[in-house]
Design the sequence.
């Protein structure tokens, strides 16, 4: 598989705030052409930092080490500025702040068309086609309305339409299902799946919703404390996952009986400097785990685990 | 990092200047060289010298000693007027923002009417009608001064009211009085203090202005504005009479402005919040 | 025992308050003592409004909210015990604590204010006991809410409510903003509190697994109306309202619903714009909750027909 996006040994540290712990630690990741990858983790796992690093949206205080290649070209801030919004598109988490409140939807969409040099007489039609493609009801009424007149679900679809309008080769979706009720959640997941499969685009889905990850992606990467602890084909997640953290995460789901009485995520700031970062919470922990840092090792086809005991 | 130091510098500088001024005000009787009221008509308009550090005025009084005593009046006026303004204004703002809507509408209507007058002119007019005197000056300066606080605090209360912890306080069964003074006021206090320290400069300047126009304290009393007023007539012949009070006013106003800036920057980071 | 009797809540907005938003319409519901009742529905369906009406944070525009048979319209006239009987926790635990106060004061404040435990030693003892119940260390008492994690603050919010010894806890999306592992803890905790203190819980959530893990009965809301009420088994195995069916299918990832039409129908059934069994009757008449089982009620004109095949 050729790598559309390749991340080598990426470490991101938020420096000046007195926080020494890197948010992302020595991370290697490859997303192939047409591959759909989900990055699953709890808050503080570093998944948002990873997404922002790829998009070049980190604050200046963040220190980035490592290399990111996109289509074989090493990404620099200048190149990133060129491909952001065209080749790589972010579907933001916060739909409420992502549209300009004083411009109509049509106005904001037209800006994209002007940039893409679409002739004026075709613009109206193109906009309508975009809105139809994300299956908004009554698409002809949307361009004239302002963001506050649309519901959260409609805004999310407008943003999706704007994001996909440039036919990007990589889509980064940040928590698209957060806070949605089941009906809306399935609606957006199904739409995303259809759109992406139709255009054969690559997807990175950032989420804490394991079920959404299984539904939408081929591969799932479980992140814990800035590291990827397990990479597994989505179809194998429920029955073949091996890392103790993944197992704990799966068992914590209410439909699986709320099996986690103790905390499995210590939060943002603290993790051991030596040994396995999950050692303190692990039921398989052995003395070696406290000293020896486990590497991500292959256990089956497309399945890698970072654990001293299992792999 | 530089902004961090900047924040502290303005605050530290303000504190140094203000401690100095406060010390001068407190120790004034021991710092004077001469009796500030004693006239020496043989020695009028004397320039700065070893005996009279800042020279003498048109009645031969020691400018330095009067300046020192004047520190008390200026700071005292500032503190009294600002405290009164902040107290009245905050109370009105709190009740207006949290109380019944009818009360809010009436108060806001009144405030709008008051604010429609040009503030300085109204203050001058009131001071003119009441006549000179320390108490009258305080009244004139308080008459409109609290309005700004009232609007400011009301605005803060209106936005705080929407915060969940106020709603939770109600569901925990707390009464309005408790919510007002235990939950709303503490969250307004920081900005009120910042506003007060910035207002302090304006009040001291305004008080000096009133004195300059002869609408302040008694004429013989050492007050910087009044001294400036006397000195302006001799600006060509004896510039030191006006210069030193002018400098004193400038330094004090600067100190309070710096304090306001410093406090604002420091208190901004005071509320420890965390995104979920 | 909490009873909603024909409760409606209308918010008025805009110029001269002409625009009306009906958040909750004509709800009648009885929540039994010591019951865990799950209130479900999409965002904007009025389930949170119903929770706020129960807490007394909103007053009904029409109808009555009753606790132990007494109206809560005038809370001040009630004895303290009845007044404080219903307490709530919300979605954003950071929001419910005043950022200026340490946790220790925040926990003690209601006890002092209501004169529940005047003795300082006794108060500290109760607080320590409650901290043990929620698995928190004592050192959190000296911290500010911003220094703690979301799960910790949510547990402390629960602790503060527990100190008031409530008979009913309104939990409005208590786990939506929390991680899965912390969600599990909070749900465990709610269950344990229910078992130990006998407090009833009104659990408001759109997360089906969360509600079914705790609740005995479920009420499904749509467009401000209660469209179906029943035991968890009734709802899971025998849902009869078309919206409940769609909701369940989506939660089980079996259906791929499109974006819903607006539920803002002034007359007739609220769901008729999206309903597959819509007929003329639905536009003319709003359906009442009709019994289809012992504890199972559905607000659909055709519920009995569908049930009987």
Sequence:
């Amino acid at each position: 598989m050729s790598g559309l996006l390749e991340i080598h040994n990426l470490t991101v540290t938020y420096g000046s705030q007195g926080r020494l712990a890197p948010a992302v630690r020595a991370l290697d990741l490859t997303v192939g052409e047409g591959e759909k990858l989900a990055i699953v983790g709890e808050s503080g796992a570093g998944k948002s930092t990873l997404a922002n690093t790829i998009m070049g949206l980190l604050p200046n205080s963040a220190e980035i080490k490592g290399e990111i290649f996109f289509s074989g070209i090493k990404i620099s801030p200048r190149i990133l500025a060129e491909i952001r919004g065209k080749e790589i598109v972010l579907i933001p988490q916060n739909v409420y702040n992502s549209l300009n409140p004083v411009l109509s939807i049509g106005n904001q969409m037209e800006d994209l068309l002007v940039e893409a040099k679409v002739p004026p007489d075709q613009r109206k039609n193109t906009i309508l086609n975009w809105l139809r493609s994300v299956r908004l009801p009554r698409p002809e009424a949307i361009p004239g309305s302002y963001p506050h007149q649309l519901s959260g679900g409609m805004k999310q679809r407008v943003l999706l339409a704007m994001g996909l309008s440039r036919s990007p080769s990589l889509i980064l979706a940040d928590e698209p299902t957060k806070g949605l009720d089941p009906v809306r959640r399935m609606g957006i997941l199904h739409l995303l799946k259809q759109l992406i499969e139709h255009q054969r685009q690559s997807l990175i889905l950032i989420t804490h919703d394991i079920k959404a990850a299984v539904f939408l992606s081929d591969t799932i990467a479980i992140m814990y404390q800035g590291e990827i602890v397990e990479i597994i084909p989505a179809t194998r997640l429920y029955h073949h996952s091996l890392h103790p953290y993944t197992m704990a995460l799966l068992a914590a789901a209410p439909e699986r009986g709320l099996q986690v009485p103790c905390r499995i995520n210590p939060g943002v700031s603290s993790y051991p400097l030596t040994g396995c970062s999950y050692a303190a919470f692990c039921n398989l922990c052995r003395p070696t785990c406290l000293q020896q840092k486990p590497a991500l090792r292959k256990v089956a086809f497309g399945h890698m685990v970072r654990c001293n005991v299992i792999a | 990092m530089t902004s961090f130091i900047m924040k502290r510098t303005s605050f530290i500088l303000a504190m140094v200047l203000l401690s100095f001024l406060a010390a001068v005000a407190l120790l004034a009787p021991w710092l004077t060289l001469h009796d500030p009221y004693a006239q020496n008509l043989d020695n009028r308009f004397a320039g700065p010298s070893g005996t009279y550090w800042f020279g003498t005025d048109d009645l031969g009084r020691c400018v330095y000693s009067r300046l020192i005593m004047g520190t008390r009046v200026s700071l005292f006026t500032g503190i009294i007027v600002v405290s009164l303004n902040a107290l009245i204004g905050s109370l009105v703002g709190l009740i207006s923002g949290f109380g019944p809507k009818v009360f809010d509408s009436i108060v806001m209507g009144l405030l709008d009417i008051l604010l429609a007058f040009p503030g300085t002119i109204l203050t001058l007019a009131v001071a003119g009608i009441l006549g000179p005197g320390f108490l009258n000056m305080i009244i004139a300066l308080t008459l409109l001064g609290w309005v700004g606080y009232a609007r400011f605090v009301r605005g803060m209360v209106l936005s705080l009211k929407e915060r969940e912890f106020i709603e939770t306080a109600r569901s925990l069964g707390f009464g309005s009085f408790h919510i007002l003074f235990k939950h709303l006021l503490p969250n307004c206090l920081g900005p009120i203090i910042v506003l007060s320290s910035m207002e302090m400069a304006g009040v001291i300047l305004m008080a000096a202005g009133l004195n300059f126009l002869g609408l302040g304290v008694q004429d013989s009393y050492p007050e910087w504005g009044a001294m400036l007023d006397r000195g302006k007539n001799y600006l060509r012949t004896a510039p030191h009479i006006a210069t030193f009070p002018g400098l004193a006013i400038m330094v004090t106003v600067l100190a309070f402005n710096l304090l306001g800036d410093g406090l604002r920057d420091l208190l901004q980071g005071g509320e420890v919040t965390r995104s979920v | 025992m909490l009873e909603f009797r024909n409760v409606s809540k209308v918010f008025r907005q805009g110029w001269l308050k002409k625009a009306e938003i009906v958040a909750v319409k004509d709800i009648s519901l009885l929540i039994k003592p010591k019951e865990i009742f799950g209130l479900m529905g999409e965002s904007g369906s009025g389930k949170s409004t119903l929770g706020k009406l129960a807490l007394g944070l909103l007053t009904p525009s029409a109808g009555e909210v009753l606790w132990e048979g007494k109206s809560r319209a005038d809370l001040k006239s009630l004895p303290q015990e009845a007044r404080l009987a219903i307490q709530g926790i919300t979605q954003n635990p950071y929001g419910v604590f005043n950022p200026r106060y340490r946790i220790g004061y925040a926990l003690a404040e209601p006890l002092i204010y209501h004169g529940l435990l005047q003795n300082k030693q006794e108060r500290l003892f109760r607080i320590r006991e409650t901290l043990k119940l929620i698995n928190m260390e004592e050192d959190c008492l000296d911290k500010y809410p911003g220094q703690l994690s979301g799960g910790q603050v949510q547990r402390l919010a629960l602790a503060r409510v527990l100190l008031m010894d409530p008979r009913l806890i309104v939990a409005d999306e208590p786990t939506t903003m929390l991680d899965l592992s912390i969600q599990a803890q909070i749900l465990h905790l709610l269950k344990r509190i229910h078992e130990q203190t006998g407090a009833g819980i009104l659990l408001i959530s759109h997360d089906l697994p969360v509600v079914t893990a705790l609740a005995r009965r479920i009420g499904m809301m749509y467009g401000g109306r209660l469209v179906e009420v029943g035991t968890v088994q009734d709802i899971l195995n025998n849902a009869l309202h078309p919206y409940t069916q769609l909701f369940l299918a989506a939660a089980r990832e079996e259906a791929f619903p499109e974006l819903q039409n607006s539920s803002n129908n002034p007359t007739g059934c609220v769901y008729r714009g999206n309903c597959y069994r819509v007929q003329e009757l639905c536009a003319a008449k709003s359906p009442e909750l009709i019994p289809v089982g012992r504890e199972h009620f559905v607000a659909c004109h055709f519920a009995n027909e569908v049930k009987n095949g």
Residues 214 and 226 of chain B are 7 Å apart (CA to CA). Residues 269-276 of chain B have pLDDT under 50 and may be disordered.
